[in-house]
Every structure is written in C-alpha cells, then in structure tokens.
Amino acid sequence: MRKLQFIAALSALAxxxxxxxxxxxxxxxxxxxxxxxxxFTPNEITVKAGEPFRxxxxxxxxxxxxxxxxxxxxxxxxxxxxxxxxxxxxQTPGTYTFFDDFHPKETTGRVIVK
Length: 114
Hints:
Layout: H1 2-26, E1 29-36, E2 39-41, E3 44-47, E4 53-59, E5 65-69, E6 74-78, E7 82-88, E8 94-100, E9 108-113
C-alpha cells in the first residue's frame, strides 16, 4: 500500500512540474511580421537576450513563403494568405537574419538580440 501511495505522490509532483512550463509558453512574447511583395514589415525586430520568443508571420501574398533562419533554428512554410507561428529559443546577444527561402536574397529581415 505504501508503495502505491509513493508512486501516486511522485506522479502528482511530476504533473505539477509540467503546469508552470505550459503557462510559461503562453507568456512568451510574440513579435508580428507581415510579408508582402517580397518585403517583411517590419524587417527588423529587437528581442531580449536570454528569453525565448515567438514570431507570428502573416503571408499577405497568394504564393507561399518559407520563413527560415538557420541560426535561430526555424524553417516553416506559410501558404498564401495565411499565418504561421514559430517558437525561438532564448538567444545570446547578436544579430540574426531570417529570410524567405523561396527568395533568399530579396526577402530578408533580422532579429537583434540585446
């Protein structure tokens, strides 16, 4: 009987440990950008070092856009006239580029981490 109580107590602690993590993800700051006619607006966002964040991108074009940044660790396609959300891990100070992988030289932006 004591063994079952011990297992139940451990299970309850494990569930309680997950609850703050879920609410922390909801509290992540979200930065919104729009891409239209091969231009990100804004094309630069500034974020706080050491804190994870999200980028919500609205594709205002009929054609798909692939939001990508190898240094920030994301790559996601947005169909025409749709939104996507990417989660980004906490970063160290610096400047990181992102781009539309279908137009990597024309459609670029950057994240400045301070």
